[in-house]
Amino acid sequence: MKTPTSRPVVLCLSGHDPVGGAGLQADIEALLAQGCHAAPAVTALTVQDTVDVSDFRVLDRDWVLAQANAIIDDLQVQAVKLGMLGSVEMVDTVLEIMQRLPGVPLVCDPVLRAGGGGALGKDEVGYAMRERLFAASTIATPNLPEARILAELPNGSADECAEKLLPYIRHLLITGGHGDEQEVHNRLYSRDGSQHTFVCQRLPGNYHGSGCTLASTLAGRLALGQELVSAVELSLDYTWRTLRDAEQPGRGQYIPRRLPLDFC
Ligand code: PLP
User: Fold this and answer.
1) Which keywords accompany this UniProt record (predicted)?
2) pLDDT digits (tens, 9 = 90+) for 173-220
3) pTM for the whole structure
4) Which residues contact ligand 1 via a Cβ below 6 A?
């Protein structure tokens, strides 16, 4: 039995975004800010800027398994965060990895589109997540467009999507950034029937990496042993602050500022 002498370790299975707004860089920064250690395993490479994605390549299954096995053999993983998987095969690879981590909280960010709208996986990847991965997950964190794809309800409300998806997953956080309400309504649904709505001020602009920031923060909070509802509330609050303080380093979307300026 390993005796942990480090901050809680979160295994991140996500894609790489070369402009550093989303993907593994978002995971690492957000987890550092929670007081966790990120163990980043690459699932896919992307070509993109702050405007949109132009290409991506999913890594071979063996490479992802080898990365995850190296981490699991050495570190004591306290939570897992899933980001871009990119293919149905990668969904099954993640299931294989999770067999080595029974009982470890799993936060699934069902990434199918980049912030600029470009595809990061076919809708079939989302359906495979719903059918196979959701049962192994603690919570999924889709935004409303992702929830509509997963639920196959193109014009569905958050409530309608949740009703369709809750048989597959224990907890579902549907974020409201793409909603049409004046304020942002983030809705947490649980299979036991409980529901929480977290309202925050709508910020102007478009952001690149907000979903990654939220999901990895939540995985970090669960790794720290926090209870789910308060972990969700704190993660939403932290993510909102990273968007309020976001920077615009390029021509396109804003990038969340996940670490304080005086971090170093
Ligand atoms: N993961 C990767 C590798 C990405 O490139 C992106 C978006 O471009 C995402 C995830 C999703 O980003 P967001 O957090 O903006 O939904």
Assistant:
1) Kinase, Transferase
2) 999 998 788 999 999 999 999 999 999 999 999 999 999 999 999 999
3) 0.96
4) 14-15, 17, 22-23, 46, 48, 53, 83-84, 111, 114-115, 120, 208-212
